[in-house]
Write a structure and sequence with these properties.
Strand content: 35-45%
Number of helices: 5
Oligomer: single chain
Structural class: alpha+beta
Number of strands: 15
CATH topology of the largest domain: Jelly Rolls
Radius of gyration: 28 Å
Shape: elongated
Helix content: 10-25%
Mean pLDDT: 80
CATH architecture of the largest domain: Sandwich
CATH class of the largest domain: Mainly Beta
Low-confidence stretches: 1-42
């Protein structure tokens, strides 16, 4: 009896020290480790299709062969219950729902839109509306950090839409360029899996779709001729400061002159001011500046550009 007890004890100790599970003869739950995320390399655009807009818009973009393309909103509306491109689009690259069969994918698209604000004639009013996402007609109303696309800064916002068991994720990017409000809009449409018989439809890979759409967005570019002829119109709200010098290390002394500029609220970007009227000579003044932004690579100051001021207004703190 003692010999039997010793053998059982040794067996149990060996099982406890082993890294392999010991079968008890019963059905045990299987624990599956979470997948490890791996970086996705930047997609090559080799073999992609290109679109160059009419000269009055002055932009280009590319899209991979698994996208469709249209400049006709009526054609696009037939693709999904909630259209994947907007009514004011001038170009639309889209993924049709049949690319992901047996899933709840309902379509996706990237559209380039021109927003028109006919009720305001002044450039300042047009710019303000272009960068104002709070209008209730906007599906994307939540501002997010600015995005730089091929060297051009865009204001951005996210949002969504829904109706009759259909859903849509939206992100937009806006830039007032060459007297027009450009909007690049991403849409991902889906349906409620609960509307289908059990087991017939699976959830599509949303991240995969978003990555494809972002690949198209990343190719958007204004035509060089229009980009150089028309600096970006911008409205900046911030505080007047002495502009920082370039290439100054922490603790390193700077020269004592104070070149008045503006530090933008939120982003913390610095801008030089040109032709400000009235002139402002004090720091720590809260202002709103409207004007066209130009890049001055020869400047000794660490700024995002020079604003040729069309209007400057002092604001209360």
């Amino acid at each position: 009896m003692k010999k039997y007890f010793l053998i059982v004890t040794i067996f149990l100790l060996a099982a406890a020290c082993s890294k392999q599970p010991v079968s008890t003869g019963q059905n045990s739950p299987t624990i599956t480790p979470a997948p490890t995320a791996t970086p996705t390399p930047t997609a090559s655009t080799a073999g992609w299709n290109s679109y160059n807009s009419p000269a009055k818009y002055g932009f280009s973009l590319k899209y991979s062969p698994d996208f469709g393309f249209s400049t006709d909103i009526n054609q696009v509306k037939a693709l999904a219950y909630i259209p994947v491109c907007d009514n004011n689009m001038v170009a639309c690259a889209y993924i049709a729902r049949d690319k992901y069969p047996s899933t709840n994918f309902d379509g996706a698209g990237v559209s380039v839109n021109i927003l028109v604000f006919a009720q305001l004639e002044s450039t300042k009013g047009q710019v303000q509306l272009c960068y104002d996402f709070s209008d209730p007609t906007n599906a994307a109303q939540k501002p997010v950090p600015d995005v730089t696309i091929n060297g051009v800064d865009f204001k951005s916002a996210t949002g969504g839409d829904a109706g009759a068991g259909h859903f849509e994720q939206i992100q937009v990017y806006r830039n007032f360029h060459n007297g027009q409000c450009f909007e690049i809009s991403q849409h991902v449409a889906s349906t409620n899996i609960g509307n289908y018989p059990a087991g017939t439809v699976t959830q599509f890979n949303t991240d995969e779709i978003l990555q494809k759409l972002q690949g198209v967005v990343n190719t958007f570019s204004f035509a060089p001729s229009t980009a150089s002829a028309a600096p970006m119109q911008l409205i900046v709200t911030g505080t007047t400061v002495c502009l920082p010098h370039k290439n100054v290390q922490p603790g390193q002394a700077q020269t004592m002159e104070c070149a008045i500029g503006i530090k933008e609220d939120g982003s913390g970007k610095y801008y030089s001011l040109k032709n400000a009227n009235p002139s402002i000579y004090d720091t720590n003044v809260h202002v709103q500046v409207t004007g066209k932004v130009e890049i001055d690579s020869a400047s000794i100051y660490d700024t995002s550009g020079v604003i040729n001021v069309a209007n400057i207004t002092k604001l209360s703190k």
